[in-house]
Amino acid sequence: MITEILAFPVGIMSSNIYLIKESSGKYAIIDAGARSAKLEEYLEKLGIKPSLLLLTHGHFDHIAYADEYRKKYGCKIMIHEKEKEFTTDASMNLSSLFGEKLPAFEADELINTDFIMLGETKIDVIATPGHTAGGCCYVDHNAKVIFTGDTMFSQSYGRTDFPTGSFSDMVKSLKLLGEFKGYTIYPGHGESAII
To answer: What Rg value do the Cα atoms of the chain yield, rounded?
Structure first.
């Protein structure tokens, strides 16, 4: 079960990087859109090396620093298989729109399963297309938490007018997430909220 969640807003879009800890003491980072000195200080102070870096989707404000953290901590980068192009294509990950071409990198593992393991904790992977075709949420049912990326925010939902986005898919994904009443969402931007 996830026992600790820390949020570190970063970058021009104020995207959240999450550091999570599960009950057996393993750590993971969720999204990494830019460098967070506070995150690094925290990890170094406690001597922590996250084992996984989970990406909710492939936009630059969520993936731009992932490769740097992989190099620094040796963590395995995972992204949904439908987001594979986003890590290598600046037009897909939108970095070219902001005058910077994100250096291409490859994920260590493309997610195509219903769950992943972090230590002894099962984290369900729920496909939530809409913002992007391969957007996904990470769910710990025991802790009743969902990391929603840019699918669902505290008072809103993600845009659907970017490459591979779909409003009809977003509606279906929001209906699916709406079934998790009482769960706390940790979105890609902004504050957490209870569904």
So the answer is: 15
Q: Does the pTM exceed 0.90? A: yes
Burial track 45-83 (b if 16+ CB lie within 10 A, e otherwise) = eeeeebebbbbbbbbbbbbbbbbebbeebebebbbbebb
DSSP 157: B
Count of other CB atoms within 10 angstroms of residue 114: 10
Nearest to 43 by CA among 51, 55, 33: 51
- Cα separation, 8 vs 1, whole angstroms: 21
Determine contact, residues 97/152, Cβ cutoff 8 Å. Answer: no
The CB-side HSE value for 50 (13 A sphere, CA atoms) comes to 27
Using pLDDT thresholds of 50, 70 and 90, give the confidence band for residue 140: very high
**Burial (0-12, 13-18, 19+ Cβ within 10 Å), 175:** exposed
What is the tens place of the pLDDT at every residue in 58-107?
999 999 999 999 999 999 999 999 999 999 999 999 998 887 788 899 99
